[in-house]
């Protein structure tokens, strides 16, 4: 039975899971959930995830929700050989990955508060530019991690990098500059160079950027 991923291209957590799937070399069926039309609130999807959040994953007789839990599950079940370092079995090494997965939720929330995508897309609001200091706090945290090692949780690529990457990438909706954070910028480029990064992220990022442009800079009506 093929793994089924309930996915939204625009969603950073959803893309973090898909990056994990691609890194593990797994086959999966992708079922796109339209956040713009509110498909996640429909009865059919609520049977999959009662919290109406993406992503969700069905693998034979188990349904797993919450993006980071999905990535951990996939690694626990399918990561073999050189893929095992994505979520190491050593207790100390795994604790560092777990710590950064959880810390990443704090950073992601700071980025989401700043971008305010739900407000921009649904309520005609503006991004919350006044929260930029919190964004820089999160980026400073990541910059300091990268002063110690090549990747987020050590010198090996792990699933913590996938989620940190998709969250930082989301700042491109407002063309947020990373010039103050050279190590974050270099790390981001490193992750971008992975063979599956473009396929997983480009379409969703374009969807978000085009949507923000349309909402924040609508074409002016011309009178006669």
Please tag this protein with its features:
224 residues; alpha+beta; 4-stranded mixed sheet; 9 helices; 4 strands
Radius of gyration: 18 Å
Q: How many helical stretches?
A: 9
Share of helix, binned: 40-55%
Major β-sheet profile: 4 strands, mixed
Q: Kindly estimate the percentage of residues that lie in beta strands according to DSSP.
A: 5-15%
**Unreliable segments of 5+ consecutive residues:** none
State the end-to-end distance: 62 Å
Order of strands in the sheet with the most strands? 2-1-3-4
Strand-and-helix sequence, N→C?
Answer: EHEHEEHHHHHHH
Structural write-up:
By secondary structure, the chain is an alpha+beta fold. Helix content is 55%, strand content 8%. It is built from nine helices and four strands; from the N terminus they run βαβαββααααααα. It has a four-stranded mixed β-sheet, covered by helices on one side. Strand 3 and strand 4 form a beta hairpin. The chain is globular. The chain starts with a strand and ends in an 8-residue tail after the last helix. The mean pLDDT is 96.
């Amino acid at each position: 039975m093929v793994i089924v991923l309930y996915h939204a291209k625009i969603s950073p957590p959803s893309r973090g899971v898909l990056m994990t799937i691609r890194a593990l070399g797994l086959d999966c069926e992708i079922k796109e959930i339209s956040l713009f039309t509110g498909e996640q609130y429909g009865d059919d999807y609520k049977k999959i995830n009662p919290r109406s959040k993406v992503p969700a994953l069905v693998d034979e007789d188990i349904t797993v929700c919450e993006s980071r839990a999905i990535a951990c599950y996939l690694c626990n079940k399918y990561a073999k050989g050189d893929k095992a370092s994505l979520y190491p079995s050593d207790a100390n090494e795994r604790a560092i990955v777990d710590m950064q997965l959880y810390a990443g939720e704090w950073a992601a929330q700071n980025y989401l508060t700043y971008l305010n995508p739900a407000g921009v897309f649904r309520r005609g609001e503006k991004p919350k530019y006044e929260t930029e200091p919190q964004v820089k706090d999160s980026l400073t945290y990541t910059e300091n991690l990268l002063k110690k090692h090549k990747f987020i949780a050590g010198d090996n690529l792990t699933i913590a990098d996938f989620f940190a990457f998709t969250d930082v990438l989301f700042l491109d909706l407002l063309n947020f500059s990373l010039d103050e954070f050279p190590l974050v910028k270099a790390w981001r480029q490193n992750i971008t160079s992975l063979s599956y990064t473009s396929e997983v992220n480009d379409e969703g990022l374009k969807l978000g950027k085009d949507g923000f442009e349309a909402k924040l800079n609508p074409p002016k009506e011309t009178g006669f």
